[in-house]
Design a protein that fits this description.
mainly alpha; three-stranded antiparallel sheet; 4 helices; rod-shaped
């Protein structure tokens, strides 16, 4: 068994080129190599001084892999390790499968019973306004409940504005007709005329 004079790889017998680096291999009689990392003596083709040895290049240290921060919530999908999860506010998508947030999460949906309780509390006159303001300003943990409170406050505001406009338009209409007393008198007069005929 001989060694390549270029890279030091072990060579099978009777090969013409090194299997590691592809360098031409001199004939067996011309080369005598003691080991891949010791002195190489070449008798026929060239003379190498006795103090010359094969020096390997120092191995460059590999840079440490960059560690990415681990996500807050990842779940394996049927025994597979999740790749990089995609986060949305409502769910985590891993390998194309949507995984709902955990039960205690702030993005977990409000249950049906939770919505029923919310709407029952909205039936109480003053309590509903206080609760809606507190929930809309961030006093609840669930995002869905906070969004519902904001929507209900906007609808209440729209209802109040429309009610005020209807009362104002109705009042202007009645005042242009002479007020409620004149309308009442005209209705009574028409009724008496119809009864007298």
């Amino acid at each position: 068994m001989s060694y390549c004079i270029n890279c030091g790889a072990k060579l099978p017998d009777r090969v013409r080129f090194c299997t590691g680096c592809g360098a031409p291999v001199p004939s067996a009689e011309a080369t005598e190599v003691s080991s891949p990392q010791q002195e190489i003596k070449v008798e026929q083709r060239q003379t190498i001084p006795a103090e010359t040895t094969i020096v390997q290049q120092p191995v460059q240290p590999q840079p440490a892999p960059v560690q990415q921060p681990s996500p807050i919530y990842t779940a394996p999908v049927q025994g597979q390790q999740p790749s990089v999860p995609i986060f949305t506010p409502a769910a985590v998508i891993v390998h194309g499968v949507e995984i709902p947030p955990p039960v205690g999460s702030r993005y977990a949906p409000v249950s049906t019973g939770g919505f029923i309780c919310i709407f029952l509390m909205m039936l109480l006159p003053i309590v509903n306004l206080i609760l809606l303001i507190v929930w809309a300003c961030g006093g609840c943990r669930k995002v869905n409940q906070s969004n519902l409170a904001k929507a209900m406050l906007v609808l209440m505001l729209i209802g109040i504005v429309l009610s005020v406009l209807i009362v104002l338009i109705g009042g202007l209409f009645l005042s242009s007709m002479g007020g409620l007393d004149s309308i009442k008198d005209s209705i009574i007069n028409k009724a008496m005329e119809a009864a007298g005929e």
